[in-house]
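Why do we care about 3D structure at all? Because function follows from shape, and shape follows, mostly, from sequence. That is the central idea of this module. The next example makes it concrete: a single protein chain, its amino acid sequence, and then its structure expressed as tokens.
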Amino acid sequence: MTVTTTAPNVLTAADALARSLSDPASVWPGGRPDGWRAWPQSLAGGAAGIALLHIERARSGHGDWDTAHLWLTESVRGEISGAFNANLYFGTPALAFLVHRAHSATGRYERTLQRLDAATEALTRTRLAVAHERLRTGVRPPMEEFDLIRGLAGLGAHHLSRYGAAETTAAVLTYLVRLTEPLPAPAGLPPWWMDVGTTGELHPDYPGGHGNFGLAHGIGAALAVMAQALLRGLDVPGLTGAVERVCAWMDQWRQGDESCPWWPGLIVPEQVADGTVEPDLRPRASWCYGISGTARAQQLAGLALRDATRVRTAENAIVATLSDPAQLDRLPEIGLCHGMAGLLQASWRVATETGNTAITEQLPHLAGRLIAAVNQPGHEPELLDGAAGAALALHTLGTNHAPAPHWDTFLALA
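And the structure:
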């Protein structure tokens, strides 16, 4: 499949997608589907995620604030969850993340943002207290304690973006440092090893649990957040050492060679015992478990540690993936989580961070593949796996700009 495209064509595609998602009544003509992802306050699958698209477009001058306000209004319909399981992707933290981006550009929504901030602060403190108690007992962490989507890595990404070097930001980073410190557990397993399957629940396919590298549910998110904190000059005791510990573990399991490195999405005890990862376990190049997210986390860590070799290895991983038709063919979906949009956004971030032209030159081809795919019918409108996320990735490439506060903070990419 040979496809090329230019920045104007990319923006045209992004504009068309955004127009198709401008009216809530036409996006869900039969009413919203069932399930928590489709609730208005869900950043992953609800109105909040589509609102983020329109806010980012309005901030850049490519959209209008009336449409953004319409979707913001949709996002806060009904009872808003501030319960213990609220997170960056759902409930008060998701809405605080969203409204902050609108407020930063307009100065509007001040009172709403204050209430959401207060609720998110209280929730974070409660989640931290429970996590520290778990650490005190020495048991292994549940996935929802520390991952990006449901856990403290996600809340930390939000607090770092929202406040920078504030007390709660430092408290989350202190927890992430503790997460990387050894537990009294079997040798060879890192302290973030989980005794559950990939859904976060006990599963017969994972009797010994697993070690997760990914940005969605694994240690990759913690690495990215800690590295970004270091790059912003935050001085939290032990932070550099924690980044180094995670990097050492990921280095141990890195596969391939210098020109084409890759990391597994996860490993199980049998692989730890054997010390090997079979080549057919190379994950797809998705954001959640594959090169899209892992390489960006590695690049951020390399920059934070001033490790030029690590930065180069991460960027080589992206170049090798983008130039390999077989790897691209394994990623037919359009979304940020599992599809081409996630690879496109992560690759753009990696390339613009250091001016890597070898990556930049490959992005139009990937964008062309994504545009061809989104032009096919049947896609969901949602942000994480659907058209809204594809539109945001195309919009970012087309404008070559994603100003702070960055929309892709919720992906731990910035």
